[in-house]
Design a protein that fits this description.
The structure holds 3 protein chains of 3 kinds. Chain A is an alpha/beta fold. Chain A has 10 helices and 10 strands. In chain A, 41% of the residues lie in helices and 19% in strands. In chain A, helix 4 runs parallel beside helix 6. Chain B has one domain: TIM Barrel, CATH 3.20.20.70. Chain B has an 8-stranded parallel β-sheet. In chain B, strand 2, helix 3 and strand 3 form a beta-alpha-beta unit. The longest helix of chain B has 18 residues. Chain C folds into 2 domains: 267 residues, Aldehyde Dehydrogenase, Chain A, domain 1 (3-Layer(aba) Sandwich); 187 residues, Aldehyde Dehydrogenase, Chain A, domain 2 (3-Layer(aba) Sandwich). The longest helix of chain C has 22 residues. In chain C, helix 4 packs across helix 5. By secondary structure, chain C is α/β, with parallel strands linked by helices. Classes of the chains: A alpha/beta, B alpha/beta, C alpha/beta. Chains B and C meet through helix 1 and helix 10 of B and loops of C.
Chain lengths: 298, 265, 490
């Protein structure tokens, strides 16, 4: 057996047996297109069914959340101004990259305790959701806008405009498609998102890696892993967050967050605590309607 | 290739830093006179451009060559000073040896709608220049709209500008192809109405040879060949110089070049 | 020092005088077969007869192409019907959409090759095929891919179903783009297709067939049958198709309308035009001049929505005409594959003869012709950009579609006069308005009887934006939400 143990060269290949040491990933947060650790230094241990350590996830703090909102705000003007065609292509690209890395996600979901066939289903669903919403990017405007026949000589039209920065408190159980089902409709409409993901879902950060390599501009999506009871109120409280998507079945939680959100009149959209169905009205939930008038005449 | 060499002769090699010293200016002037040490057919640059305090040094350094000495003046870059002092600065720079003056208009006054004042300040500067040529910097990045750029161009030319120039290079938004097109159109219309040629200088943001050639094509298509020389067109740029030289070498040798082989001043 | 290839050194080019050095797009990376069969039922089928497709800039033959006769048309319709009754109707909208997304992405990947072939086969400048035709074609597939599983949202109160087999006949002026405009919505809505490309420009449609193979589109969903006018007629008249989609001349459009009369066949027609491009004295003149130039000289004027009638307000007429002439003087007519070229070759000898005939008529009728100095290339089909001033409403060059780089100029005094004269035509495809005054824009756009009105711009196209004409410019719209209804049973 030819084994070299060297701390600077972790990949060992033996000639006479098949032992290979893997290079374990550090799961950090996804903010502004980069992967910083939490400034608080706290971790959440994630262990597999057999007790082995899967990951030390970053436990995001309110300061991390603050930075994420800054990153989202910075990206929001550019993302809102991007053509609908470009946004659609980028979201389709996310699907392309995700499909290409599908096996990694299946094995990650399995390591979290999901059955393999369910994991594959979850992955396929996530990809289909991305393709579905990519296809809405340049169509919801036609379906949800109007030219209004006002009773005066004016050209008058109403069209949807993105809210800006949207906080998403993702569904509680850590499936990939649950995350995508809330994120895709928000960003396809030109909003930038800060997502609070279930604390032990490594798939959310792996998904962030897909985002980082899919031409998604930095800051359009920011993903934090952390504790819901700690960070949920921060999402609701922040004065520079324009809207909140809350996936919750806990009526106390709903009430508490809506009370906080009242201070800057965030648009709050509440959904059950599970994966959401395809629905263009999830896009319009995060749009404002702007109506413009102009006289007709010489 | 001929476009690249032409562009070199159109460079206003510029240093406008608080830290400018005698040595810095002398070295820059040497480069302006002989951009490619081993090839005297390239260059010289159209002009060197410095602050008034450095004009004497620059004039001495380029003496005997074809390189013009341009000075900024009129409380460059902001222009926020009384006209009296700004004109004194012009006269000082001309007296020190500048044969070109790059002035700035009062953008604040322009945006306040005081167009007559803009006309007057340009006309006074032209007078203060004497024999020197006057370039009028509009600071298009602060005027922001094409309508404003067009109007400011028209005022400047009516008031006697020899050149209209886009920018000081000191604000984030400098020369762009669309803004330059608007100014070239203004020059074309002015020439059509008065028969007087006015030169154009885009400044800032032109960092590579390809972009510079696109500007030259625009000049050729809008104004024609009469403007395609350094009497009527200049580039205000600093890093453009070496990219032009690298592209000239690349055209000659077929190899992409390295910065190591071109002098940084 | 490495010595450059001879051509570079022997012809040193002086930038300051004369023309630009050639900047030819390389065509050595494209793959073209010497001969092409018909694409039917997922296979390449040889027809009994064939014809040559020619490069109009050089007169050289590019490839030999099959000509579908009645037998092959029949085969193709049958293949489309089988595919419709079989796999294509059994898969979900989302899966249909995925095929279209794939096609869009493949087209983006092979964009340069398609652009070069388009310019070689049809004569249009490479800058246009590269920057407009091919990207827009890919965008049409991408856009319609997204509709395939969302049709229930498109028409309130309706649950749309496909029509069945669609017969499509497309023209030579935007060969690939027209194929995309036809195929993408048809497939998104669940139909299958038999498409006949124009006789002088079959190549990009045939290359598209190869691309559909790469996309693994099920056999028979799209069938491409090259041929001539008779092929198109046989297709349109075939009893096995449920819908006809045609883009081409008004004359042929009318005969198609007659052919489907009394049948259950649905039809859309996108026909000719004689658009009025109206410039007011308060327009930004230099920008309007660019818009007028683009309006009539884009694609050599081979555009149904070309701004071929200029209405210039009399107070600025001299200025505008002077500027137009100056700008035309800088336009470059030449090799379509040269990136410097603004105006390419006229698509065919027939089209060139038609243009010349109408231009002669214009001169005889008393309009004043102007063309820039310079010599055209000797081989190939070429026509100089041309202006006519002193035109009257009754001149043939003002009434009839020339479909070439020829602009007829009239003056007007008031908005009402411009509207009246602009609308005084059996056509109604498009129009243009140039003014800085917002209320005047809306007054004009609401008054012009045209399906597409451009204000302070021209020749802008987008898959999300419906396109089509009033009156004899056609029936129906393509693109956008409105364009879907043509391919659905609602």
């Amino acid at each position: 057996m030819d084994v070299r143990e060297d701390f600077t060269d972790c990949l060992l290949i033996s000639t006479s047996n098949s032992f290979v040491m893997t290079i374990k990933k550090t799961y950090k947060l996804f903010i502004g297109g980069k992967f910083p650790r939490t400034e608080s230094g706290r971790v959440i241990e994630v262990r597999g069914k057999d007790g082995a350590l899967l990951a030390n996830m970053s436990q995001a703090s309110r300061k991390d959340f603050r930075e994420a909102v800054v990153a989202a705000r910075k990206a929001s003007a550019g993302w809102a101004k991007a053509t609908a065609y470009l946004r659609g292509q980028i979201i389709y690209r996310i699907a392309e990259i995700l499909d290409g890395r599908g096996e990694q996600f299946v094995s990650e979901l399995v390591s979290h305790g999901l059955r393999e066939d369910k994991a594959r289903e979850d992955l396929a669903r996530a990809i289909d959701l991305l393709v579905y919403y990519a296809g809405w990017s340049d169509k919801y405007q036609a379906v949800f806008s109007s030219v209004n026949p006002v009773a005066s000589s004016h050209f008058n039209f109403s069209a949807p405009q993105p809210n800006g920065v949207v906080g998403i408190i993702a569904p509680g159980r850590g499936s990939l498609s649950a995350l995508v089902s809330t994120l895709a409709p928000v960003i396809v409409g030109g909003n930038c998102a800060v997502v609070l993901s279930l604390q032990d879902a490594t798939t959310a950060i792996s998904f962030a890696e897909v985002l980082a390599t899919s031409d998604v501009p930095a800051g359009v999506v920011n993903i934090l892993t952390g504790k819901r009871d700690e960070l949920g109120p921060e999402f609701a409280r922040h004065m520079d967050v324009n809207a909140l998507m809350l996936c919750s079945s806990d009526s106390d939680e709903k009430r508490a967050l809506e009370l906080e959100a009242a201070e800057n009149l965030k648009r709050v959209s509440v959904h059950p605590n599970r994966s959401l169905k395809e629905d263009p009205y999830l896009i319009t939930d995060f749009q404002e309607v702007k109506t413009t008038w102009h006289p007709i005449g010489v | 290739m001929s476009a690249l060499k032409l562009a070199v002769t159109m460079l206003d090699v510029t240093t406008l830093e608080g830290a400018d010293s005698v040595g810095k200016v002398q070295q820059m002037c040497a480069k302006a006179m002989r951009p490619l040490p081993e090839d005297s057919s390239v260059g010289p640059a159209g002009a060197v451009c410095v602050y008034p305090r450095m004009v004497k040094v620059a004039a001495k350094a380029v003496e005997g060559s074809d390189v013009n000495v341009a000075s900024v003046a009129t409380a460059f870059p902001s222009g926020q000073m009384r006209l009296k002092e700004r004109l004194a600065e012009v006269r000082f720079a001309v007296g020190q040896g500048a044969n070109e003056i790059d002035m700035v208009i009062s953008r604040g006054q322009f945006l306040q709608g005081e167009y007559r004042a803009i006309y007057d300040e340009i006309a006074s500067c032209k007078e203060a220049c004497g024999e020197a040529h006057l370039k009028v910097i509009l600071e298009t990045g602060e005027l922001t709209t094409y309508d404003n750029v067009r109007y400011a161009s028209d005022i400047a030319m009516a008031a006697g500008a020899d050149f209209i120039k886009t920018s000081t290079g000191k604000v984030p938004i400098a020369a762009t192809l669309p803004v330059t097109l608007v100014m070239l159109q203004a020059i074309e219309d002015f020439y059509g109405e008065t028969g007087r040629m006015v030169g154009m200088k885009p400044a800032g943001g032109i960092s590579n040879a390809k972009l510079a050639i696109q500007y030259l094509i625009m000049v050729k298509e809008v104004l024609g060949e009469k403007w395609l020389n350094n009497q009527w067109f200049r580039f205000g740029a600093s890093s453009l110089t070496n990219d032009l030289l690298m592209q000239i070498r690349k055209q000659e040798t077929g190899r992409y070049q390295s910065g190591d082989y071109f002098t940084k001043d | 020092m490495i010595i450059l290839p001879k051509t570079e050194i022997m012809n040193p080019h002086d930038f300051t005088s004369g023309d630009y050095a050639p900047a030819t797009e390389s065509s050595d990376h494209i793959s073209l077969k010497k001969s092409y069969d018909l694409f039917i039922g997922g296979k390449w089928v040889k027809a009994a007869s064939s014809f040559d497709t020619i490069n109009p800039a050089t007169g050289k033959v590019i490839a030999e192409v099959s000509s579908a006769g009645k037998k092959e048309v029949n085969q193709a319709v049958k293949a489309a019907r089988n595919a419709y009754d079989g796999e294509w109707s059994s898969i979900s909208g989302a899966e249909r959409g995925k095929y279209l997304f794939r096609i869009a992405r493949l087209l983006q990947e092979r964009a340069r090759e398609f652009a070069v072939i388009e310019s070689m086969d049809g004569g249009k400048p490479i800058r246009e095929s590269r920057d407009i035709d091919v990207p827009l074609a890919a965008a049409h597939f991408f856009y319609h891919a997204g509709w395939a599983d969302k049709l229930d949202y498109a028409f309130p109160g309706k649950k749309p179903k496909p029509l069945g087999v669609v017969g499509q006949v497309i023209p030579w002026n935007f060969p690939l783009l027209m194929a995309a405009w036809k195929i993408a919505p048809a497939l998104a809505c669940g139909n299958t297709v038999v498409l006949k490309p124009a006789e002088t420009t079959p190549l990009t449609a045939l290359k598209l067939a190869e691309l559909l193979e790469d996309a693994e589109l099920p056999a028979g969903v799209v069938n491409i049958i090259s041929g001539d006018g008779e092929t198109g007629q046989a297709l349109v008249e075939h009893s096995g198709i449920d819908k006809v989609a045609f883009t081409g001349s008004t004359a042929v459009g009318k005969s198609i309308r007659r052919a489907v009369a009394g049948t259950d066949k649905r039809y859309t027609l996108e026909l000719g035009g004689k658009a009025a491009n109206i410039i007011f004295e308060d327009a930004p003149i230099n920008e309007a001049v660019e818009g007028i130039i683009n309006g009539i000289f884009f694609n050599q004027g081979h555009v149904c929505c070309a701004g071929s009638r200029l209405f210039v307000q009399e107070s600025i007429a001299d200025k505008v005409i002077r500027k137009l002439k100056k700008r035309i003087g800088t336009l470059k007519v030449g090799d379509p594959l040269d990136k410097n070229t603004d105006i390419g070759a006229i698509n065919s000898a027939e089209q060139l003869a038609r243009i010349k005939a109408l231009v002669n008529a214009g001169e005889k009728e008393g309009a004043c012709i102007w063309q820039p100095e310079g010599r055209l290339p000797r081989k190939g089909n070429w026509f100089k950009p041309t202006l006519f001033t002193d035109c009257a409403q009754s001149h043939r060059i003002v009434q009839e579609e020339i479909f070439g780089p020829v602009l007829a100029i009239q003056t007007f005094r008031t908005p009402q006069e411009a509207i009246e004269k602009a609308n005084n035509t059996p056509y109604g495809l498009s129009g243009g308005v140039w003014t800085d005054k917002g209320s005047k824009i809306f007054k004009m756009t609401t008054s012009l009887n045209a399906g597409v009105v451009w204000a302070n711009t021209y020749n802008k196209f987008d898959p999300t934006s419906p396109f089509g004409g009033y009156k004899e410019s056609g029936i129906g719209r393509e693109g956008g939400l409105h364009g879907l209804s043509a391919y659905l049973n609602i």
